[in-house]
C-alpha cells in the first residue's frame, strides 16, 4: 500500500505490437517502475482493410486498473496514455465511435501522397506543417478517405488522435494533445493550430477538428464514476502526459545541455534533436526531415527510420518455418556473420509491408547490384549495419542544418537491449553512445504526469530523477576506419534516398 511520502502513477504505453500498464512509484527522490499488465496488440485484417481493435485494447486497460486496485489499493495519483502517432478515430454527434480506426499500414493510402501533391505542391504542404512526407501520415489517411468518398467524414463530429480516444473513454472529455497532433501533418507550428488553409485545399472537412489541443502535462479530467466503481479505485486524474510515445521517450532522456541527439529505438527508429523552434526550410523538405512537438515548449527535429521491424518480421517468418527463435540467438548469428556484405536503405518503400521481409532484403540487394546475404545471421547483420550507417547519414544532415555538431547520442527504448546495434551505432557515427533507459517511454509518461500533479518541478528535474533512478550503458566507437570505409561505399544507396 501507499505511504505518506509515496506517489504512484499508472502509464499505459501502447505500441504497435503490444500494450502494457506500468506503475511508477516516486519515493525518496527515486522513481521505480513495475510492469503490471501486458497484452498483445496488432492489426486486425478484414477484406481490404487493416484496423486496430480499440475496444479490446480499452478492455485490457480497464483490467489493468482492476489489477492495480487489487495490488496497491484505491489511491492512484494519475493515469497517462501514450501510443504511436498518426492514427485517429472519428466520433459521431452522440459521441459514439464511427468504426474501428484504421492501421497506419492500411493500403488505402497507396499512391495518395502523389495525388495530394497534385492538388497542393509538396513545398506548400511542408511549409504549412514542417512534417516529413509518409503515406501513413494522418493527412494522407484522411485525404484517402476524401478520395474514396468515405461516408464517415460526413458523419464525423470529432477527430481524436489515438491516445486522446482512450483519454475520452476514461473521462468523457474530448481533447487532443499537442505532441501527438503534430505527427499528423495537419498542424501548423507557426500558427499553433490546425493547418486549416491546407486542409481546405485538399477538400478535407475541418469541422471535426473541434477538440481543444492541450499541452503535455495537462490534467484532462477524472476517471468516470462507472469506471471507479468497476475498478475499485477512488477519484483519479487522467493526464495528457506526452501522448506520442516518442515524445514521452525523449522527455526521459537523461541528458543535459544542447550537444546531444536522441535515438528512440524499437520497431521504428526515430533519430533527432531537441530544438526550441521548428526548422522548416527547403533543405529540410529535400531531406524529408520532420518537426514534431516535444515537451516543455520544444520540438523534436527528427527522421523516421524503419527500425528493428525488419528484424522482428524476419524472426516471425523464420519461427513459422522452424519454431521458436530468440533475439539473443539472432544476435549471436549476426555477431558471427561476415560484415558489410551489403547495405540496405531501410526506408525504401519495398520494406513498408512486404509479405516476406528476408526475401525483400535479398531482392533489394540484387536490384541494387550488391551481393545478397544468404544466412539468417547475414540477413540480421545486414539490417543492423544498415541501420547504423543510416543513423550516421541522417545525423550528418541534421548537424549541417542546425549548424552545430553533436557530441553524444542517447539511445532509449527497447532497442537498447540490442547491444550489437548500439555498438554498431557508436562505430558508424563516431559518437559516444549512452544507451538507456530501456523503458524510456513509460518513464517519460510517468514523469510528465508527476509534473502535472506538482510532484516534479520541471523537465530538467525529471531528467535528473531518471539519471539517478536507472542504469545506462556507454559505448565508445570501435573500428572507426573500417566503418568509415563502409559508410563511404554505402552513400551511393543512402544518399539516393534523399
From TrEMBL:
Any one annotated GO CC term: cytosol
Entry keyword annotation includes Kinase: yes
Classification via CDD domains: ASKHA_NBD_FGGY_RhaB-like
Protein name (record): Carbohydrate kinase, FGGY family protein
Alphabetized UniProt keyword annotations: ATP-binding, Disulfide bond, Kinase, Nucleotide-binding, Rhamnose metabolism, Transferase
One GO process term, biological-process aspect: rhamnose catabolic process
Domain Carbohydrate kinase FGGY N-terminal: 10-250
Record-level Gene Ontology MF annotations: ATP binding; glycerol kinase activity; rhamnulokinase activity
Parts forming coiled coils: none
Domain Carbohydrate kinase FGGY C-terminal: 261-452
Superkingdom, natural source: Bacteria
Any Pfam family: FGGY_C
Family to which the UniProt record says this protein belongs: Belongs to the FGGY kinase family.
